[in-house]
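Q: My hope is that you can spare some time for a protein that puzzles me. Underneath my words sits a plain record pairing an amino acid chain with its backbone structure tokens. Those tokens are not coordinates but codes from a learned vocabulary of shapes. Thank you; the sequence and its tokens follow:
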Amino acid sequence: QVQLVESGGGLVQAGASLRLSCAASGRTFSIYAMGWFRQAPGKEREFVTAITWSGDSTYYADSVKGRFTISKDNAKNTVYLQMNSLKPEDTAVYYCAANGGIRVRVHHEYGYWGQGTQVTVSS
């Protein structure tokens, strides 16, 4: 089992920044990659970004490229999502996830999920 604990959401104005954290524990040796997904009301859960557990590779959705940065602290088994230049359309519940496969953009490939953290961006 892998446990994921997220933190860092909140309410900000457009143009502001937020940093989300996701701490992983348990059988972390089984993780291939960590990802962030988001889900807005009435919409499908969508891929935001992912990083391999080794930290060698990162992946981004086009909608966040250049604004969001994913990183990993290996000593803390924690993944961070730095979100800059936030827009109202970034408003969603953000979920951290851990997977054991290479299809990092596919949400059903992820076996473990955090509880979600709300990010609200006002205009």
Remarks:
- DSSP finds no helices and eleven strands in the chain.
